[in-house]
Design a protein that fits this description.
The complex is a heterodimer of chains A (455) and B (480). By secondary structure, chain A is α/β, with parallel strands linked by helices. Chain A has helices at residues 9-27, 37-51, 83-95, 116-140, 158-173, 195-209, 218-228, 236-251, 265-272, 291-294, 301-313, 405-420, 425-429, 435-453; strands at 2-8, 52-53, 72-73, 75-79, 105-107, 145-153, 179-185, 212-217, 255-256, 280-286, 343-352, 379-384, 393-401. In chain A, 54% of the residues are buried. In chain B, the strands form three sheets. In chain B, strands 6-5-1-7-8-9 form a six-stranded parallel beta sheet. The chains are: A alpha/beta (455), B alpha/beta (480).
């Protein structure tokens, strides 16, 4: 089963580079010591098949005859200016364990200027043919193609605008393939002034074409870096490495408990997105510690899972500062909507020793889930005996829950306010986006908020 | 990588331009040790083989060829010869292509009409040719930077004429203008006329304007000098480091520095910091088109108050964290601004922080959180911050910050200008010099006044919303 990763814009490309690094380091890292040699080899092969192409590409020259061909990432790099892609390729060469295919990139000279309309209306159509060609070549190299993973941010112009356009193109050209988009929600206090417009327009368009949207919030990730990993001067590299670790923990090979199949996009979507109106997913993982601190910590499965469950219902982004007062209770006694966070579906990943014997029933508590979801479909588990990275035990939860409602509501509120004053709108109108398009986007998102709030 | 072209007009424009090119070369020299013609260099320079009588342009290619001869992507315009000849005679002479120079003999006599109407139409073909030639050498032209003063005749007149030309012929390329506004005690009597007439052009045709005032530059210069003399008395260990580009002690041009040079350096630094992210790499790149996108909420309100910090670098770096936060605080004080205005007590429409050097995102976040409570932002843009991070610091400093604010305080500057204009206009003083010029009509004066008044009013209206409690606009209702 193979995934093709589409890296869009500066954020997407930077995360992509880190993601491939993370999966390689996990596959060849210390985790291998925690299981049998046979299991380790199986794992490594699965990781390679999933993310890399190991055949010798025709037409490309080897550095020297004696060198083995490095695995080539199944990635398509897209950006509207060349600096970031070049940097990402340079960084990948440093690892020595994998590489990018330098031909699998598309870039222009001029950026999108943080302007969604510029990305969607101008750069996107120009890039379409070339990018679809590269995508097709990557897909053809896969024996069993499992789906697309697109990495992008919401705040800028390329990741958001070009990303939204290309996702629509992918949907058109590959109507039966799975499209999963990973998006990065910008800091609440702003990185880009028009980020709320860009985010609103992107989300509303992605909602039509993607199968699932995995949301990562910079604010939460920042807290994880500062409070759990004790990083003093947090850079985007630190944040990206947290994203890569969390993403890798749900994408690295694991087997389902009920039918033994691996965690392909198809399997995950079947369990997590029962209704196309509910597509927003989020990831919570535990524990987050640096390698140094690990020597001083010990975890038990019950302890980890208890924390993870509370993180879910109290809508906490990480294992510190969780509100333990929030409790689950049955539907009819719900006092107000500002209660525990309700879920539509959850998939739990357990990686490490003795994960098969731990009790996971707290997660299948029907009170956690919305009433119209069939009882046995709401919750499933994937297991992997081989430890993840340097963690003896690692648990991640991929959820379709009410968690995104808060940030989404606040985003739409701010964007609406700005739209009401018509500030910055002239910049978008220049590139073919009309005021009706704004209104459509707002309407779509209000519907999403309403749906999720009523879970 | 995109390219930008600098169009320097008039005495002021050319002198600033000269400092800019000098500092740009120094900056690239310090980062590019191997002498190869790489992408960052190509944004402002061309590499040519000067052995041919018409120098052969060598493209960047893979960015590994050695530099042969560097030529600036610049067009120099002046209606009298003195300034441009000085530049050509000096050490920077080689950097300019002689076909990119347009000069005349007699000057404009501090008369906007002579510059804009007379010389504009006279030299239109030549200017257009020179720009077309420079533009053709660019792979991907993103931006024109025009440098000129507002008070004189050539800078304001011919400068704004060129702005019109650029809009007509290259509508997709951004036009950034760095304009030096006359201070109250300007020695040119007709400077208010020239400035207001030019303002009308800038409001209509420029994408973004960075107004600068001579008085502020003088104040900054004096502040730096005072600090230098103070600290040298206090201790011998910490002293003002001379290597900083702002003080230009070790400028490329040896010999006597001209009187405005130190002030022009500050403006040149502004331009370097503004373009640093589009030239060098960084964690959060800010291209020039992103600046217009984020800082210009309404088409005419494109006047940005700029401030640079630090202005001098003390050699004592034992307290790095405090110094970093100090840099952010300084950028929001009046003394570090390049135009005299009071943004703290007015309304911010948007603000951009362009940081260079070894600064982490968390530092920027922390400082934004710290400074935000004391600044007033318009209600629909409460988090109106645009941040950019470039990893290459300026020469001689570990980090630097350029803050660009779209703030309503600028209406006071414009109101002052309008009052000075009105003082002359109501007596029709010196008007005949202008109306005697072919193509100039008296109506243009009132039009320019109206445009300026309109601009001030727009800012005023927005400022009127300050302090009031705002209910969010009622949201769309959906059937649930």
């Amino acid at each position: 089963m193979s995934l093709v990763t589409v890296q869009l814009g500066q954020c997407g490309n930077q995360i992509g580079g880190q993601l491939f690094n993370t999966v390689v380091e996990d596959a060849y890292g210390k985790g291998g010591l925690g299981c049998s040699k046979k299991e380790n080899t199986l794992y490594q092969d699965a990781v390679l098949e999933r993310f890399f192409n190991t055949e010798e590409p025709s037409g490309e020259t080897r550095v020297s005859c004696s060198q083995q061909v490095l695995p080539t990432a199944r990635a398509v790099m897209v950006d509207m200016e060349p600096k970031v892609i070049q940097q990402t390729i340079q960084e990948s060469k440093k690892s020595g364990k994998w590489r990018y295919c330098e031909k699998a990139q598309f870039c222009q000279k001029r950026g999108s200027g943080n302007n969604w309309a510029h990305g969607y209306g101008h750069h996107g159509p120009k890039a379409r043919d070339a990018v679809m060609d590269i995508v097709q070549r990557e897909v053809e190299k896969c024996d069993r193609f499992g789906g697309f993973l697109s990495l992008m941010s919401l705040a800028g112009g390329t990741g958001s605008g070009v990303g939204a356009y290309l996702t629509e193109c992918l949907r058109e050209e590959y109507p039966h393939s799975f499209l999963v988009n990973q998006i990065v929600w910008p800091y609440g206090t702003g990185e880009v002034i028009v980020q709320n417009f860009n985010a609103a327009l992107t989300l509303s368009h992605l909602y039509q074409s993607a199968d699932a949207i995995i949301v990562f919030e910079n604010d939460n990730l920042h807290k994880i870096c500062s409070q759990l990993l004790s990083i003093k001067n947090i850079s985007f590299q630190d944040i990206n490495s947290v994203i890569s670790q969390e993403l890798a923990s749900v994408l690295q090979p694991a087997a389902s408990v009920d039918n033994g199949r691996t965690n392909s996009p198809g399997e995950l979507l079947e369990r997590l997105v029962p209704d196309p109106q509910y597509k927003l997913l989020n990831v919570r993982t535990i524990p987050h510690t640096s390698e140094r601190a690990l020597a001083f910590s010990s975890f038990t499965w019950p302890g980890l899972l208890k924390h993870l469950r509370q993180m879910l219902i109290a809508n906490a982004g990480m294992e510190e500062g969780v509100d333990w007062q929030v409790k689950v209770h049955s539907r009819d006694r719900r006092l107000s909507s500002a209660d525990f966070t309700s879920s539509l579906a959850n998939v739990l990943f357990l990686r490490g020793k003795h994960c098969e014997s731990t009790d996971i029933s707290p997660f299948s508590d029907p009170r956690l889930y919305s009433s119209w979801v069939p009882r046995d479909a709401a919750f499933s588990v994937f297991r992997q005996q081989r430890p993840f990275h340097h963690y003896e035990k690692y648990a991640s939860l991929l959820s379709n829950s009410q968690a995104p409602v808060g940030p989404l509501d606040s985003l739409v509120g701010k964007a609406w306010n700005m739209f009401a004053s018509r500030a910055y709108v002239h910049q978008y109108l220049k590139y073919g986006i009309a005021e009706e398009d704004f209104l459509d986007s707002f309407a779509t998102l209000e519907q999403v908020i309403s749906n999720y709030s009523n879970l | 990588m995109t390219q930008s072209i600098v169009v320097q007009v008039g005495q002021c424009g050319n002198q600033i331009g000269c400092r800019f090119w000098d500092l740009a070369l120094r900056e690239h020299a310090s980062t590019n040790k191997s002498g190869t013609f790489d992408e960052p260099l190509s944004s402002f320079f061309r590499n040519v083989d000067a052995r041919y009588s018409e120098p052969l342009d060598i493209p960047v290619g893979r960015g590994r060829d050695k530099i042969c001869n560097l030529k600036a992507r610049a067009v120099l315009v002046d209606m009298e010869e003195g300034v441009v000849s000085e530049i050509l005679k000096g050490p920077l002479g080689d950097v300019f292509d002689h076909r990119q120079l347009i000069t005349d003999v007699s000057g404009c006599g501090n008369n906007w009409a002579v510059g804009h109407m007379m010389y504009g139409s006279m030299y239109r073909e030549q200017i257009s040719e020179a720009i077309r030639r420079t533009a053709e050498m660019c792979d991907c032209l993103q931006c024109f930077f025009t440098l000129h003063s507002m008070g004189g005749g050539t800078g304001s007149g011919v400068g704004t004429f060129i702005l019109n030309l650029l809009e007509e012929e290259y509508p997709e390329v951004y036009r950034f203008t760095t304009a030096v506004y006359p201070s109250a005690e300007d020695d040119v009597i007709t400077s208010p006329y020239n400035s207001v007439l030019a303002m009308h052009q800038l409001t209509e045709h420029a994408d973004c304007v960075l107004p600068i005032e001579n008085q502020s530059l003088v104040d900054i210069f004096n502040m730096v000098n005072q600090a230098a003399s103070k600290t040298s008395k206090i201790s011998s260990t910490s002293k003002v480091k001379g290597g900083s580009t702002v003080t230009s002690d070790m400028g490329g041009i040896k010999g006597q520095e001209k009187p405005f040079d130190k002030m022009n350096n500050i403006v040149a630094n502004l331009l370097l910091n503004l373009t640093s992210s589009s030239r060098f790499e960084g964690a959060l790149n800010v291209d020039l088109n992103e600046i217009t996108m984020n800082l210009v909420p309404f088409p005419k309100l494109h006047y940005l108050v700029s401030s640079l910090s630090p202005l001098y670098h003390l050699a004592d770096v034992s307290l790095p964290l405090r110094k970093l936060d100090q840099m952010f605080s300084d950028a929001f004080t009046k003394e570090y601004q390049l135009i005299s205005a009071d943004p703290r007590h007015s309304l911010y429409l948007a603000c951009a922080l362009m940081v260079r050097g070894n600064v982490a995102v968390s530092d920027i976040r922390r400082n934004i959180d710290r400074l935000k409570p004391s600044l007033q932002f318009i209600h629909w843009n409460q988090e109106g911050w645009k941040t950019g991070l470039c990893s290459v610091p300026p020469v001689g400093q570990p980090y630097s910050l350029l803050a660009l604010a779209n703030n309503s305080c600028i209406r006071h500057t414009f109101t002052n200008l309008r009052d000075r204009f009105h003082k002359l206009y109501k007596r029709k003083a010196h008007l005949h010099h202008y109306t005697n010029v072919d193509g100039m009509e008296a109506a243009q004066f009132s039009q320019a006044m109206e445009s300026l008044t309109g601009l001030v009013k727009e800012y005023e209206q927005l400022e009127g919303t300050m302090g009031r409690v705002h209910e969010g606009a009622p949201r769309l209702q959906v059937a649930s």
